[in-house]
Specification:
Strand content: 15-25%
Radius of gyration: 21 Å
Largest sheet: 10 strands, mixed
Shape: elongated
Distance between the termini: 34 Å
Number of helices: 12
Strand order of the largest sheet: 3-4-5-6-9-10-11-12-13-14
Order of helices and strands: EHHHEEEEEEEHEHEHEHHHEHEHEH
Bound molecules: S-adenosyl-L-homocysteine
Length: about 350
């Protein structure tokens, strides 16, 4: 049966042909505005049409496998499964400045970053636009059940979103449509390990999403040791692509920097980082490393985090430290899934 969830209005109209376009609009409103899951509940459609549609189509988003709530109640992590059984993680975050969700863009990851749990088993497959949208709808429904709304989306879970470019763009455009969630592009952040040609392609899409670049090291030698992608696209070209994205879109780029104890967290690293970012429309988000059982790194000391943060902020680079949310629910990417596979 053909799944209608995740189709654009034009695609819906094409599927429903020869029904008039207003039927596609009614059905889109049911699916995206009212979260209706069966044709039976589409009470403004004639009964015979509802019956006929339910023999040909289904409305299927994602299914819950596991839920973990953090002790402070601010973070909830979900493992969601799709029809082929593939499972991905999403994280709901209740910030004092709004409600957010972190979604996955792929099942597994091929990028091979040395500190990350998501890439341990390689790439299983790309997610479709519909599946990424299903992650977002899952969160939107939870928030609305709490009398709240979903304010922002970060594509920062498992996978490299820019390696799944077409599905990502399709999902973003659909998410932005008034007949869908009508989400402002400014409320969406895409995080990449640095696929330079795809950053340029994203710029040319003319959708002003926030770009977040996972930097993690201030020189090519260390970055290539931590992130294999750096051997293909080195720091110079990556920083130029980030700068260009900021100039063209007017959106400040965020550079993520994981602090790995004793590896990239000294004052000398902070100095070099401030140097390579000076003059950029950018800020830095410092992420204390979240230990992964299969990986051989240590978190930084609190003292090292404070010193690094202070150095950047007193040397012209706006920096924040990611609030540790949900460490008790394995919130670092890939960890919930990895732990499920172990037990
Ligand atoms: N592929 C994209 C998005 C997924 S990773 C990217 O690389 O940006 C999202 C962020 O989590 C990245 O900055 C990544 O480096 C970071 N991350 C991965 N493993 C982590 C860990 N164990 N502790 C803290 N941050 C981690």
């Amino acid at each position: 049966m053909k799944n209608l969830f995740g189709l654009t209005l034009d695609e819906l109209a094409a599927e429903l042909d020869p029904l008039p376009k207003f039927r596609a609009k009614q059905i889109a409103a049911h699916i995206y505005k009212h979260g209706v899951k069966t044709f039976d509940d589409m009470n403004d459609l004639p009964k015979t049409l509802r019956a006929e549609l339910s023999t040909r189509f289904e409305i299927k988003a994602a299914e819950l496998v596991t839920q973990l709530d953090s002790r402070d109640g601010l973070t909830t992590k979900f493992l969601l499964a799709f029809s082929d059984g593939a499972a991905v993680e999403v994280v709901l975050m209740r910030h004092d400045y709004g409600n957010g969700i972190c979604i996955s863009s792929q099942v597994g990851c091929q990028m091979g970053c040395k500190f990350c749990a998501s890439t341990l088993k390689g790439l299983e497959r790309n997610l479709t636009a519909a599946e990424m949208l299903a992650e977002i709808f899952f969160a939107a429904e939870i928030f609305s059940g709490e009398g709240q709304k979903l304010d922002s989306v970060v594509v920062m879970g498992t996978g490299e979103p820019l390696m799944n470019f077409d599905a990502l763009i399709k999902m973003l455009r659909l998410l932005h449509e008034d007949y869908c969630l009508g989400m402002s592009y400014r409320k969406i952040t895409i995080s990449t390990c640095g696929i330079v040609p795809a950053i340029k392609k994203l710029r040319d899409e003319k959708i002003p999403v926030t770009l977040s670049i996972s930097l993690h090291a201030p020189d090519d030698k260390l970055r290539s040791a931590l992130m294999p992608i750096n051997s293909a696209f080195g720091l110079k070209s990556l920083l130029a692509a980030g700068d260009d994205y900021a100039q063209v879109t007017g959106r400040r780029v965020t550079y993520e920097y994981i602090l790995l104890g004793g590896v990239n967290d000294t004052e000398e690293h902070a100095r070099r980082l401030a140097k390579i970012l000076s003059g950029q429309l950018a800020n830095v988000n410092l992420i204390p490393y979240n230990p992964v059982r299969e990986r051989d790194f240590n978190p930084p000391t609190n003292h090292a985090v404070k010193k690094f943060f202070h150095f950047l902020n007193t040397h012209g680079i706006g920096a924040t430290v990611r609030k540790e949310m949900g460490a008790d629910v394995n919130a670092a990417c890939g960890q919930l899934k990895a732990s499920k596979n172990i037990f």
